[in-house]
Amino acid sequence: MNLLNNTHSTISLPSFEMNNTSQLLNKRVTEKDSLYYICLIVKKRLEQLPLLKPYLNLAYSTAELLCERQALLLAQRKQQLHQSYDSITLISSSNSSFLQSPGNRISSVSSISMDSMDSEKISTTSSNEGAFVMRSSSHSSSSNLSSNKNDLLTFSIGILPITTDCDPVTQLSNLFQQGSPLCIIFNAVKPQHKLTVVSSDDIKVCKKSIYDFICACKMYLTLTDEELFTISDIFSNSTEKLIKILDVIKTLLDSAPSIFPSSSAITYTASIANSNTDHGKIVREFLETERKYVYDLEILYNFSKQLVDYNIINTEELYMLFPNLHEVIEFQRRFLISLEVNAQVENEMQRIGSIFVHSQNFFKLYEPWSIGQTAAIDYIASLPSFNANASHLIIKNKLELQSFLLKPVQRLCKYPLLLKQLLQTTPIESPNYKEMELAVDISKSVAKNINENQRRTENHEVVKELYGRVNNWKGYHISKFGELLFYDKVKISSGGDISDSDREFEVFLFEKIIVLFSESGHYVGSDGLSGGSSGLGSAGNSLKKTASSSLILKKKLSNTVPTLTNGKKTKLDLRGRIMIININKVTPIGNHNLNITWESPKEQGNFVLKFRNEETRDNWNQCLQDLCKLYRAEFGTADTGSRQNSFIQSFSNININNNRDRKSTRLNSSHTVVSRMPSSA
């Protein structure tokens, strides 16, 4: 009889057999779903067999040694991080949050440009926002991740509390690697088919014992290769492999209730130290929501496998739609194990901050999730086979899928709030207070980088769309404007009189220029590219070929491009522009307004941007301040004329007439370097 048939393990990934996804979304996840507690229960059941006691003790000592080695490695890394933080803080005090150092020029912030659109890739460099977690090239990111993986000597992340020697997950993994304990377990279950027990620290002998156990399970328990594990699985550092091993062990234990008590018979109550205090309540919320998050990731992982099994997507599309999902789950299981360990000790002994210090590079796994989320949802929902097989899938429609795909980014943005609350309830004199402060900064940087990735991806699509919306670029090349940083519909008044009645413009802030457009009253064609003069130079042709494609997927994703207006997109007329290098001063006025003072070789003036809310105004203000600071650092010793001539584009004064007649809104040319921009009609 196959012992695994019709047996649902609480260790395995979530079952597909759910009536609807609302049950999954609202399912209450407890400690019984946590790998940490599953291992605790299995360990307690194994302790009932006296023959296993010396092997359990040896596994404990080995796990303890590994935890000590990991703590030493992390202490060294933490010291390096503090030194890096001091250096970054010093640099960020003189450089912008959006930009690289002056010597690297503005264009080094990102290579998201129209010239690179034909390759449909985004390549970003790191932001110098006093951050611990910074984007880098894919090569360096992989290098950093590999470096951190080498520090993972146990199944926990970070440094354990001083009162904790090791975690039960690492202990059980080391127990199984001895080989002979598996034979002892089998002999207890099937005494009529006893295996030879050979205790040794020789790896070859250990592997021979594991091999004997696997063969015996096939022969006497009729388990298949798919149901069993391999020798390499035993020595793997993978939580997924360990879960498979635990499934088999649990099945054997369940078959001998007279020797191994059932899981329900093990009296172990999960408790959180000082759970009635404010700190304890926050730890409880942190832990419970983390358990649910890991469970939801496993649901999503099962769903992704279903899509491949039902031939809805292929393996290449699998990675594009669910990037790094397996690696993310591996990381988050370890993250949860570490939280479980810390929740058991007194507040002053907890090392939750250390978890984030150790995790800083692993959070880079989430970067692909911040790009193309909407595209992934729309792509799957657009596939006919998705709707046809919905009844067989664990996630059944687009709305449910969206809920799960958004969870990773939502969770990352939740960490800063939880850590901030923990920091507020941690005494300043606590030995781990500084570590918690560091964790807060790391979590904020992670969330900021995720948001920045999403913003850049959206802006990349907006620029492609903008190219086709403009009636006449008047000789200007959008590919030379730099990265699009912000865009919005803004009312503008001239001369600083914010009481004037104003016209609304669509304003685009690039790295090198602010460009103003007014709506022409005509609509863009369905392809989004009709009617525009070539403002892209050499990138124009390649843009037209790729504009309907996704940055990630290569088909059926044109409907995910962000729109600038509700409903149909209107065509735009170019009304004015001012080079960032000619801006002298940016001053907030009131709650929503921003006064910009500019100067050219022949004249000077100012205008006021009127935003809808204070937050948007503040974002634009900070960005412009940073841009101006960078240019002053590069060209501060040069006169206005030399600063002007350092750019290939021209500068014009923006003269906004308050008459709402479109013809009265004109642009007075003051000085050009390469080409003169005609006055608008």
Automatic annotation (TrEMBL):
<dbReference type="GO" id="GO:0005634">
    <property type="term" value="C:nucleus"/>
</dbReference>
<dbReference type="InterPro" id="IPR001331">
    <property type="entry name" value="GDS_CDC24_CS"/>
</dbReference>
<dbReference type="GO" id="GO:0035556">
    <property type="term" value="P:intracellular signal transduction"/>
</dbReference>
<protein>
    <submittedName>
        <fullName>Related to Cell division control protein 24</fullName>
    </submittedName>
</protein>
<keyword id="KW-0131">Cell cycle</keyword>
<feature type="region of interest" description="Disordered">
    <location>
        <begin position="659"/>
        <end position="681"/>
    </location>
</feature>
<dbReference type="GO" id="GO:0005085">
    <property type="term" value="F:guanyl-nucleotide exchange factor activity"/>
</dbReference>
<dbReference type="InterPro" id="IPR053026">
    <property type="entry name" value="CDC42_GEF"/>
</dbReference>
<dbReference type="Pfam" id="PF00621">
    <property type="entry name" value="RhoGEF"/>
</dbReference>
<dbReference type="GO" id="GO:0031106">
    <property type="term" value="P:septin ring organization"/>
</dbReference>
<dbReference type="Pfam" id="PF06395">
    <property type="entry name" value="CDC24"/>
</dbReference>
<dbReference type="GO" id="GO:0043332">
    <property type="term" value="C:mating projection tip"/>
</dbReference>
<dbReference type="InterPro" id="IPR035899">
    <property type="entry name" value="DBL_dom_sf"/>
</dbReference>
<dbReference type="GO" id="GO:0051301">
    <property type="term" value="P:cell division"/>
</dbReference>
<dbReference type="InterPro" id="IPR011993">
    <property type="entry name" value="PH-like_dom_sf"/>
</dbReference>
<feature type="domain" description="PH">
    <location>
        <begin position="477"/>
        <end position="629"/>
    </location>
</feature>
<dbReference type="GO" id="GO:0000935">
    <property type="term" value="C:division septum"/>
</dbReference>
<dbReference type="GO" id="GO:0030010">
    <property type="term" value="P:establishment of cell polarity"/>
</dbReference>
<feature type="domain" description="Calponin-homology (CH)">
    <location>
        <begin position="146"/>
        <end position="257"/>
    </location>
</feature>
<dbReference type="InterPro" id="IPR000219">
    <property type="entry name" value="DH_dom"/>
</dbReference>
<dbReference type="InterPro" id="IPR010481">
    <property type="entry name" value="Cdc24/Scd1_N"/>
</dbReference>
<keyword id="KW-0132">Cell division</keyword>
<dbReference type="Pfam" id="PF15411">
    <property type="entry name" value="PH_10"/>
</dbReference>
<feature type="domain" description="DH">
    <location>
        <begin position="278"/>
        <end position="453"/>
    </location>
</feature>
<feature type="compositionally biased region" description="Polar residues">
    <location>
        <begin position="666"/>
        <end position="681"/>
    </location>
</feature>
<dbReference type="GO" id="GO:0005737">
    <property type="term" value="C:cytoplasm"/>
</dbReference>
<dbReference type="InterPro" id="IPR001849">
    <property type="entry name" value="PH_domain"/>
</dbReference>
<dbReference type="InterPro" id="IPR001715">
    <property type="entry name" value="CH_dom"/>
</dbReference>
<dbReference type="InterPro" id="IPR033511">
    <property type="entry name" value="Cdc24/Scd1_PH_dom"/>
</dbReference>
